């Protein structure tokens, strides 16, 4: 009888597509600890992205520009609407806001060095402006955040632009949390908080709510800074058409739209992965709002969230952005998640490329930490050089594509240069599915 | 005394003029007439001058003030003296929401009542309200002193950090992690000084002190009901 049983075909073990091993592991972790997972970075789930778009190079109907001979300009001016001194950048790739506190002092210095060497701007973050950051950044955007940590009018006047942060792509509608491990003496002093506590950043500004108030807040900031510098309004991508329109109505010089792949120093994983829009999907509605109001190019649009390559830059600009901002990619260029720290990542229970416990302050690369010994691992001069190189490469890549499409400036890229590989990307970017002249939502299906 | 007619000459000229005063200026006394509820009056000042606004103002009057004394002979809209660093702002009438929000220093005196979220996220400013204050006042207040000679509304001091709250009248309710604390001699001394400077007719012994229980300083799942 036993011999017969051995001959009966057996049902193979089947893993659930719903209760996957990672999901089950998270259930067990939650059950053991009673707390949700907090991490850094942006959305890791796969969402329609710039990879789902392709450029249509020149052909009979268009002629290309010579790659190494004919000019393809990259400069951009931000803040031309009201500011007396708009920001003029050599390249349309800026460094997004990341705080001293979330990042080490050397990391902030490196961002300033790299951005300045590449002719672009960097941005403060929650926690205020440090003298080192100002000193190493030729163009520095000062973030005006709900927490107002370290906020003071003297630093405000030292800034080359002010960015009013309404939200960010990793957590639109959410505040922040800097865990006690990263609240060093200096961070605590800058934020007027006791050392070692979990420091919360509010989700709403304390002294205004809604677009009408925002208009008055912008007036106040302009009055304090003599209308000298541009005022950006940064939003996490959720309702890009209306948020852009309302930011314009409130008087913004620049709208910064941050998609869900945009990083954060520390936020609940459930927030990062389940709230917000993919970056790809928010550009065309934002541009549409600017066009409907007759201010496209007068109010500049900066797109961020998952920008990695010159191709991403070119695609964002082809869809109507004036510039992009990078955060996570800049940290990688500095040395974040570098394989040379693999043994240390292993000790932390993770691996190269997956390390995202930026909030715990144990970053082997010395970037997302306030531990003096770890922070000392990052040489700001060398890291700044790596960032400069990376920015240059991205710019060259974007120029390569623009020339191939026949454009002598990155701003001349246009939606007609693109096609989509998937229906989703075609719908979001409003460019035709490859090989067709149609995209979802367009008549003629 | 220099007089500036806001209606006739505009906001930009007013702020540019006041902001251009140096610490050594002889023109220390300014009067602003016809404010008519305008926003952002006398913002970003940074000199030891005295500005008197002859009437009521809109949002953010005396925002980010440094060194200057700004007196308002009327009531003020939302965000008076927001993010003040130093100096004094004195309001004869009432104040709307967010009075003294995120202020780092200086003294804000409101001789009438203050609306909701007075002292929200305050970071070192001293605020004395002769009358009552509205709900959610001193929310996430980090440092400084909030003195209320009247009553306080709901959720006073919610998610408080290290700011000190003194209330003479009733408190409708305390916010998360805000508790009544012992009034020690050093607190009475602080309170007396603030009441004297604010011209408030009240005795320190009549007040109760409130502060942070410090139970929410580090995340604990057992406190989830408070979040």
TrEMBL record, chain A:
Coiled-coil residues: none
Recorded GO MF terms: glutamate synthase activity
GO BP term (any one): glutamate biosynthetic process
Annotated region (Disordered), positions in chain: 113-137
UniProt biased composition (Low complexity): 113-124
Pfam family, one: Glu_synthase
Gene3D superfamilies attached to this UniProt entry: Aldolase class I
UniProt keyword terms in alphabetical order: Oxidoreductase
Domain Glutamate synthase: 81-335, 359-408
Family: Belongs to the glutamate synthase family.
Official protein name in the record: N-methylglutamate synthase subunit C
Organism: Ruegeria conchae
Lineage: Bacteria, Pseudomonadati, Pseudomonadota, Alphaproteobacteria, Rhodobacterales
TrEMBL record, chain B:
GO molecular function annotation: oxidoreductase activity
CDD domains: GXGXG
Annotated signal sequence range: none
PANTHER family, alphabetized: TUNGSTEN FORMYLMETHANOFURAN DEHYDROGENASE, SUBUNIT C (FWDC), TUNGSTEN-CONTAINING FORMYLMETHANOFURAN DEHYDROGENASE 2 SUBUNIT C
Protein known as: N-methylglutamate synthase subunit B
The species this protein was found in: Ruegeria conchae
Lineage, uppermost ranks: Bacteria, Pseudomonadati, Pseudomonadota, Alphaproteobacteria, Rhodobacterales
């Amino acid at each position: 009888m036993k011999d017969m049983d051995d001959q009966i075909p057996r049902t193979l073990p089947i893993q659930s597509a719903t209760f996957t091993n990672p999901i089950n592991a998270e259930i067990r972790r939650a059950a053991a600890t009673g707390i949700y997972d907090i991490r850094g970075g942006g959305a890791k789930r796969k969402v329609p992205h710039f990879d789902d778009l392709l450029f249509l190079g020149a052909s009979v109907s268009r002629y290309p520009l010579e790659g190494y001979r004919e000019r393809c300009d990259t400069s951009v001016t931000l803040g031309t609407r009201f500011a007396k001194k708009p920001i003029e950048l050599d390249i349309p790739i800026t460094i997004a806001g990341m705080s001293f506190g979330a990042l080490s002092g050397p990391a902030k210095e490196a961002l300033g060095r790299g951005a300045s060497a590449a002719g672009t701007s960097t941005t403060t973050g929650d926690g205020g402006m440090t003298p080192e950051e100002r000193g190493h950044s030729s163009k520095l955007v000062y973030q005006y955040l709900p927490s107002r940590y370290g906020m003071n009018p003297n630093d405000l006047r030292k800034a080359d632009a002010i960015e009013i942060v309404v939200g960010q792509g990793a957590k639109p509608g959410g505040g922040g949390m800097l865990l006690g491990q990263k609240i060093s003496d200096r961070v605590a002093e800058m934020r007027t908080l006791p050392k070692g506590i979990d420091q919360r950043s509010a989700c709403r500004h304390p002294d205004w709510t809604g677009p009408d108030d925002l208009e008055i807040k912008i007036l106040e900031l302009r009055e304090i800074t003599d209308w000298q510098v541009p005022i950006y309004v940064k939003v996490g991508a959720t309702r890009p058409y209306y948020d852009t329109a309302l930011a314009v109505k409130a008087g913004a010089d620049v709208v910064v739209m941050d998609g869900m792949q945009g990083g954060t120093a520390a936020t609940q994983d459930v927030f990062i992965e389940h709230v917000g829009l993919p970056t790809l999907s928010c550009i065309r509605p934002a541009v549409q709002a600017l066009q409907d109001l007759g201010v496209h190019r007068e109010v500049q649009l900066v797109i961020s969230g998952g920008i990695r390559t010159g191709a991403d830059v070119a695609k964002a600009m082809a869809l109507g952005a004036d510039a992009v901002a990078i955060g996570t990619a800049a940290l990688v260029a500095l040395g974040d998640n570098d394989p040379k720290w693999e043994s240390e990542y292993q000790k932390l229970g993770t691996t190269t490329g997956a390390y995202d416990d930026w909030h715990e302050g144990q970053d082997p690369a010395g970037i997302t930490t306030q531990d003096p010994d770890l922070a000392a691992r990052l040489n700001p001069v060398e890291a700044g050089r790596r960032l400069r190189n990376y920015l240059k490469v991205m710019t060259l890549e974007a120029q390569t594509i623009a020339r191939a499409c026949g454009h002598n400036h990155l701003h001349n890229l246009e939606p007609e240069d693109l096609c989509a590989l998937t229906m989703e990307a075609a719908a979001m970017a409003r460019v035709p599915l490859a090989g067709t002249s149609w995209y979802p939502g367009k008549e003629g299906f | 005394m220099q007089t500036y007619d806001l209606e006739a000459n505009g906001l930009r000229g007013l702020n540019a003029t006041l902001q251009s005063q140096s610490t050594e200026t002889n023109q220390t006394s300014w009067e602003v007439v016809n404010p008519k509820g305008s926003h952002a009056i006398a913002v970003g000042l940074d000199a030891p001058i005295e500005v008197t606004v002859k009437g009521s103002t809109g949002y953010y009057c005396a925002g980010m003030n440094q060194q200057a004394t700004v007196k308002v002979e009327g009531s003020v809209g939302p965000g008076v003296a927001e993010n003040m660093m130093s100096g004094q702002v004195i309001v004869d009438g009432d104040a709307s929401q967010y009075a003294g929000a995120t202020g780092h220093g200086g003294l804000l005196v409101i001789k009438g009542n203050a609306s909701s979220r007075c002292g929200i996220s305050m970071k070192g400013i001293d605020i004395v309200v002769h009358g009552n204050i509205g709900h959610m006042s001193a929310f996430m207040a980090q440092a400084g002193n909030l003195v209320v000679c009247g009553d306080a509304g709901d959720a006073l001091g919610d998610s408080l950090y290290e700011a000190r709250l003194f209330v003479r009248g009733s408190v409708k309710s305390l916010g998360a992690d805000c508790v009544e604390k012992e009034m020690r001699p050093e607190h009475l001394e602080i309170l007396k000084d603030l009441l004297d400077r604010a011209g408030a007719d009240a005795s320190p012994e009549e007040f109760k002190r409130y502060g942070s229980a410090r139970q929410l300083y580090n995340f604990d799942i057992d406190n989830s009901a408070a979040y």
